[in-house]
Amino acid sequence: MLGMEVTVYIVRCCDGSYYTGLTKQEIEARVWEHNQGIYDGYTRKRRPVELVFTETYDRITEAIERERQIKGWSRAKKEALIALAYESLPELASRKKK
Fold first, then answer.
1. Sequence-ordered list of residues with C-beta below 8 angstroms from that of 54, at least 6 positions apart, any chain
2. What is the number of other CB atoms lying within 10 angstroms of the CB of residue 21?
3. Neighbours of 82 (CB within 10 A)
């Protein structure tokens, strides 16, 4: 194996909010960790969580950049990404300017 795969993911929390993260482990194992409350973080009090989106990268630097990008997005833009409605992303990015 040349490089390590890194997964950027979004989970929907029980309160309807979204959490974006990244992991080098199998995504199913990471979601299990969120649902077990293993780490004291955003999702711990918002369980259960449901995996709604993943993207895989070969380089950790690209995954970190993408995670930061998504974390800065509005809820509407995250939901467009989750729905794979890529064509609406530019419009949602420029919406505030109108």
1. 7, 8, 9, 10, 27
2. 18
3. 13
Residues 57 and 91: their CA atoms lie apart, in Å, by: 25
3-12, 18-27, 55-64, 69-78: segment of lowest average pLDDT:
3-12
3 state SS of 43: coil
- What count of Cα atoms within 13 Å lies in the side-chain half-sphere of residue 45? 2
Q: Are 35 and 47 in contact (CB under 8 A)?
A: yes
Q: CA-to-CA distance for 73 and 53, rounded, in angstroms?
A: 14
Domains and CATH numbers, the chain: 6-97 (3.40.1440)
| Residue ranges in 1-98 assigned as alpha helix (H) | 27-36, 60-71, 75-82, 89-94
| Model confidence pLDDT, tens digit, residues 68-85 | 999 999 999 999 999 999
94 versus 61: which is more confidently predicted?
61
Residue matched to tokens 């930061």: 68
